[in-house]
Amino acid sequence: xxxxxxxxxxxxxxxxxxxxxxxxxxxxxxxxxxxxxxxxxxxxxxxxxxxxxxxxxxxxxxxxxxxxxxxxxxxxxxxxxxxxxxxxxxxxxxxxxxxxxxxxxxxxxxxxxxxxxxxxxxxxxxxxxxxxxxxxxxxxxxxxxxxxxxxxxxxxxxxxxxx
Length: 163
Fold this sequence. Notes:
Low-confidence stretches: none
Strand order of the largest sheet: 1-2
Distance between the termini: 15 Å
Helix content: 55-70%
Mean pLDDT: 97
Structural class: mainly alpha
Shape: globular
């Protein structure tokens, strides 16, 4: 799932690069309003909250709608690098850890303990959900959107074409 996540980000961010600055920041009716707002949310949720919870055992206090990177190019680079961090980190996790729980504090201050593997699946499903919103925005703006489905990634990986 981490490899698919990085592949999907790459394809999506390549497509988003063709969008004008005005359309990139336009309120498209998405939960985080714009493509930019949604990409910032992905950076916050997946990389600055969940990665920290999983890899470092920390629960940062950060709003889900925080604009952590106003610069479009730096945000793109951070999303690509953050997706790669999951790929590098996950093989270091002892297999027994996957059968345990992840304990963290939510952004509202609530202490939670959930199944580790199921919660990790949530991270990647959540990112897929928001990438889907961005592809809908691309379509509404008249831009082509990439195919991001897992089976297409698996086929590309099988063919050695995921770079």
